[in-house]
Amino acid sequence: MGIINRITKRTLQGEMSRTLLTIFSMAIAATLVVATLVGFTSGQDSLYHAELKKTGGMQFVIRDVPRQKAAKLRQNAAVEKSLVFANLGRFTLPKAQGVTDPTTKTPELVAMDQTALTQLAKPLLVSGRVPRNHTELIVPTDLATKKSLLGRSLTLQTAHGEQRFTVVGTMYGYQQFARAYRWITANSTRSAATPTVHVAGSLTYIKRLRSQVAALADQAGVRPRQTNIIYNENALTIIGAGADLINKAALTGFLALVLTVIGLAAGIMIYTSINLGVWARIRRYGLLRSLGATPQQIRQLVYREGIALILPALAIGYLAALTGLAGVMAFLNRRFATAGMTDMHLVLSLHPWPLLGSALFMLLITFLASARPAARAARVAPLAAVRDNLTAPHLRARQLRPSVWQRLMPTPWGQLAAKNYRRNSGTRWTMITALTVSIVIFIGFTSFIRTALQSTTITYGTGIDVSTTLVNRTDTAPLQQLATLKNVKEAAAVQVSTIQLAQRPQGFSDIYLNLLVVPPAVFARYFDNQMTLLNRAVTTVSASGQHQESWVFPQTDPPSSLIIDRHTTLPVAQMIKANTPMLRAIASDRGGLVISQAQYARLRKGRSKTMTPVSETVFMLRLRDLKKHRSTAAQVQEILSAPYIYDRIAENQTNDSFILAAQVIVYSFLALLSLVSLANIIDHIFANLLQRRGELAMLQSIGTTPAQVTRMLGLEHGRLLLISLFWGSVLGAALSYALQRQIGSIYELTFVPPWSEIAAVALVLLTVWLVFAGVSYRLVRKQNIDHWLRLT
Amino acid sequence: MAILTAQELTKQYSGEEQPALNHANLAIEAGEFVAIVGPSGSGKSTLLHLLGGVDKPTSGTVHLYDTNVFELNETQLAIFRRRQVGLIYQFYNLLPVLTVQENITLPADLDGRKVPADELAELLEILGLTDKVQSLPSELSGGQQQRVAIGRALVNHPAIVLADEPTGNLDKRNSQEIMDLLRAANTKRGQTLVVITHDPEIAAQADRVMTITDGRLTGGGDDGHH
């Protein structure tokens, strides 16, 4: 072991309590870094694989690969797994069937074997089953049709003539990746003879995925144009391999911001610790310089001290972070399972780069944080070994003048505290700056995240249990079937049209009014077969962050009639408040006039300009037994063949789980960040105390009691903590405000001063101050005065 | 032949009216034992630190052999100090975290040189520290600590050893033992030695005595007389 290493090791061993405190502080920072990087990549991996499951694990589809080249493509070493399905060509839908595909007039029909059907089609199935033979068909859910297609026969006009299929299943139509296979049948002899096939695949290595896939397509004779290769963007975006560069930049930017915050907190802590060490050892550096140590060797001494501290801290950090992450993931996985989120399963991913990156990041932070103290140490003159005046602070005349505080202090030790405070400006400002930055980070980020998380817990829903919106479908007949389901307590349907009034009634906000068109059963049950003005409450957020409720229509004196034009006036029989989940759901966002379907049909005649047609139907259900929500929702989906069913209970469970996951992650992050800041404060204060033991011994030797010395130290540090608290609170609140303003327009966040965070910081600082006073008193009372005087 | 010469060496501290050292000239021959005497604050230590390259003058030069010490950069100066100069302080200035042996070999270690075992054993024997090699400075008496400092000054066979009041913190018996050691290094090893002292008895043991008063050096030997 070289002399530099030996001196470093012995120095750290000689100050074991402080060394351990610093290692502990650094370990918290290391835990934060490892947990952030490993947690981030694990989360990415888990979400990526959950998303990939929906497409049978496939990352891309290369379309129209010549059949003879497909096998070679699939055998390429870069391809981890693949599936192939036949392209049966494009077709048109005869008009008489009343079905159109909103994405194209000439959709493409594909044929799959059972493996491809199971992997690609089944995960996206909304209702029904996958085809068993070439006469059966799966269709996308986003088709424009008046009635459910499930079980119906459809004729497709193909290049080989008309072909009849039976629709046996509907598949989620909004999946971007599935635009390569929206209309699917099972393989047949014809599909085995198509000149081209589509190849879905996944690569062994994700790096440079797009160029790898493009090369594969090129080799297979497919020009790698945008339309020829479809990527699973939903999955790839999660791991930063998506085509959307803005998304990728946002992901990188977010990670960079988090690492900057951690780096700042860790850097300040390490800088403070190393810097105090350098201040305490200036004489020693002077001696070494006088004995022939070069500035480079002195610099190495400081850097190696940083490295010697960070290495064990990193080991502890890895252990704590990985154990903590595993624990948090196990907890969240249990929660996801309870919420029925079967796709969601967090797995701890141990990729080399986040593991190695954490170490490199901490080493870099240590190196950067040690740079200034190291340069300071290297500048120490050899003469500092023997000349006290080189290590003592250079005081200006201003610093020697008594301050206001000093004059106000009634006791000698109070006056001495004021003098010390004023005359140790170098270390004082380092400490105030470090503390202030720590407090700014804590208050700024904690209050911002708390406000953001609070906004996610506000529920804006109607309270309806199950609902679905069928776009382009105006048939309300299935309502009867829904109402007869065993677990359904109430069922309703509504269609919304907008009508322009001839004049704005008093208290109305505009002349456009929603017409809430309901089937006869609903009109009778909820509205006594009378045209009813359904008033809806809306919640707004005030400037002070309070949620306020107001009503769309004036609550008193509703209009008795509404003038549509010269010939038509609609009588308003009553106005009721939408104060039950079902009425709220019928009222939609803005309330309106409830009319029957027959009234709507009469009203619509000749009013194509002043009235919009109904284009979608919303079905709403309240359940008897909420625990059976899943099976009822499945029944509703089956009956309506709906692309999406809103299941409030499942949604709440999912939301609660995600909010919980976000809270666990964010609060763990903040807790660790706060601990780093706290460790910094403790390290700073106690290092300062240990450094001044000789001075304290001298005060004791001339008759100052331990209590008086403690009061003097308490006054010095109390003032320092108060100043840091003040500036930290002001700047922290400003940071929180800036962050909330940045995203406030998107998430409707309103700035609320971070009083609770300021109070928490004040409480922590008060605790630290009290503990410090206790420790100081004990230390001063028990210290060997003679020993410390000799060392001085 | 003079190995160390100082010409017109002046040191003026900022804020002080009088220079701490005023146009000092001296020449020290190889193997010579020189004592510099003078009252407190006369500039003795300043002169010593300038000769050892620990401090820099306001004006003037110091040559060791043909090297102008103050033309060296920081790194060269550090190497110069550890190879050519042995410094002994009044308050020992040992590193408390290093053992006796480690303190002695420190200049060699800083130089990346390993002290041969027999050479080290001989030095420890001379210093009377053979049984204390693993002790820490805090476990030694003042006299023993100063012996360690002497060992540290001698370990690299420097061109010159500069001792600043080496006995100033010791009792009479220990003082004489330290002086015997330094004298032995001078006579047996031919070590050139400059000792600062205000003790006439110690000064009397030197080959030559220079006097410094108010920064002015007399008997510097630059004019050739001893």
Automatic annotation (TrEMBL), chain A:
One of its GO terms (molecular function) is transmembrane transporter activity. InterPro entries: ABC3_permease_C, Macrolide_Exporter_MacB. Residues 257-380, 668-784 form the ABC3 transporter permease C-terminal domain. Keywords: Cell membrane, Membrane, Transmembrane, Transmembrane helix. The keyword Transmembrane applies. Coiled coil: none annotated. Signal peptide: none annotated. GO terms for cellular component: plasma membrane. Its main location: membrane. It is found in: Cell membrane. Pfam families: FtsX. It is a multi-pass membrane protein. The chain crosses the membrane at residues 20-40, 254-280, 307-332, 352-371, 429-449, 658-682, 720-738, 758-780. The keyword Protease does not apply. PANTHER family: ABC TRANSPORTER PERMEASE YTRF, MEMBRANE COMPONENT OF TRANSPORTER-RELATED. Belongs to the ABC-4 integral membrane protein family. This is ABC3 transporter permease C-terminal domain-containing protein. It comes from Schleiferilactobacillus harbinensis DSM 16991. The lineage of its organism: Bacteria, Bacillati, Bacillota, Bacilli, Lactobacillales.
UniProtKB/TrEMBL annotation, chain B:
Residues 4-226 form the ABC transporter domain. It comes from the Bacteria. GO terms for cellular component: membrane protein complex; plasma membrane. SMART domains: AAA. The keyword Amino-acid biosynthesis does not apply. GO terms for molecular function: ATP binding; ATP hydrolysis activity; transmembrane transporter activity. InterPro entries: AAA+_ATPase, ABC_transporter-like_ATP-bd, ABC_transporter-like_CS, ABC_transpr_LolD-like, MacB-like_ATP-bd, P-loop_NTPase. The keyword Hydrolase does not apply. Keywords: Amino-acid transport, ATP-binding, Nucleotide-binding, Transport. One of its GO terms (biological process) is amino acid transport. Pfam families: ABC_tran. This is ABC transporter ATP-binding protein.
